[in-house]
Specification:
Layout lengths: L2 H14 L5 H25 L4 H13 L1 H7 L5 H20 L3 H15 L5 H15 L4 H26 L8 H8 L14 H8 L7 H19 L1 H16 L13 H20 L5 H18 L8 H26 L1
Length: 336
């Protein structure tokens, strides 16, 4: 697990004590963060739409069932979304004003997000590339951002080097790939350990590098499964894309098909597809939003998907849906 959420939980333990009420205080903080995220999301929308449309978008976000549900889970979802919306706000600020304060904030926040979820690595490097190519951020400033980010994450990298004698930012990739790609995997993955894999795992030395070496075995097993039947797993990848964007047709979660969860997911998926078709392609900030959504969609679909992961793509779907809503509203006004 990346460390930020562990630090977040530990901070609560220091303040409130390590007792049976700890989870309650963590969830209360997450509810507060989720509420603040809705306000920050409104500020982001205000840069793209009118105040009226922004209010609608922020209201959709704050009342969307998976957002409400995620805040009540012991998970990094809420804190990541809070930080990620701030990240986009600061990034847009940096694109408009490349002063050192914005560079510093962007670099530090990027480092914190890298320590929150591993998939942010893709978004981080894309953001640097996009700023360099399309907004002409000087390459020296790009290097400065990278340096600040590296300084931010360096204490954790040093800690890992001292503990494992290896330079590691995140571990567990092999296990996550294996969970997503084994003979019994579905969209949500499956924990299938065959006899051969069991024997290999038993032989892993129980030393300080146990988890790292165990992860290598899982990754090797996943590679073998994929090579044995690439067509099957490519089909599973496409199924995950559909499930992530719209809904999972074969979810094992008992409340997944509740109308209050299912229909909003389907509607926001359909509306956002229309928005993707009609949004203003010449606007570079709009394009940044869309490509970010595509990166998250593709990266997450490579792995096992849980229902709460919908949160990571939802803000982008809401933004695209608002393009469609605005388009329909303008058409109705013209007719009248």
């Amino acid at each position: 697990m990346p460390p930020i959420y562990a630090y977040f939980a530990y901070l609560h333990a220091l303040i409130f004590g390590f007792n049976e009420n700890l989870a309650f205080f963590i969830i209360c903080s997450q509810i507060l963060l989720s509420s603040l995220t809705a306000i920050l999301f409104y500020k982001l929308l205000n840069q793209l739409f009118s105040k009226e449309i922004s209010c609608i978008g922020s209201l959709i976000f704050s009342l969307f069932p998976i957002i409400v549900f995620s805040a009540s889970q012991i998970s990094s979802v809420t804190i990541y979304m809070f930080l990620f919306i701030i990240f986009i706000l600061i990034y847009f600020k940096l694109l408009d004003n490349k002063k050192f304060t914005n560079i510093l904030l962007f670099g530090i926040l990027s480092g914190v997000l890298l320590l929150t979820r591993r998939d942010f690595i893709c978004i981080y490097f894309f953001s640097l590339f996009y700023g360099l190519v399309f907004f002409k951020i000087n390459y020296r400033k790009i290097l400065l951002i990278f340096f600040i980010t590296t300084i931010t994450i360096s204490p954790y990298i040093v800690r890992n080097y001292i503990a494992f004698d290896k330079i590691i930012l995140h571990s567990g990739l092999g296990y996550n790939v294996w969970k997503a790609y084994n003979p019994k995997s579905k969209v949500e993955g499956y924990l299938f350990v065959d006899k051969n894999l069991k024997e290999q795992l038993k032989k892993v030395p129980k030393d300080i590098n146990y988890r790292i070496n165990e992860d290598k075995i899982y990754l090797s097993a996943a590679k073998n499964y994929i090579l044995e039947d690439p067509k099957k797993y490519f089909g599973l990848f496409l199924e995950r894309i559909f499930s992530f964007y719209f809904y999972d047709k074969n979810s094992s979660q008992i409340y997944y098909y509740n109308a209050f969860h299912l229909y909003p997911n389907i509607l926001i998926g359909i509306f956002s597809v229309f928005g993707l078709i009609i949004y203003e392609k010449k606007n570079k900030k709009y394009n940044f939003i869309v490509v970010n959504m595509m990166i998250i969609l593709l990266v997450y679909s490579l792995f096992a998907l849980l229902p709460r992961y919908k949160v990571y793509i939802l803000p982008f779907q809401i933004i695209l849906s608002l393009f469609f809503i605005r388009y329909c509203f303008n058409k109705l006004v013209k007719k009248n």
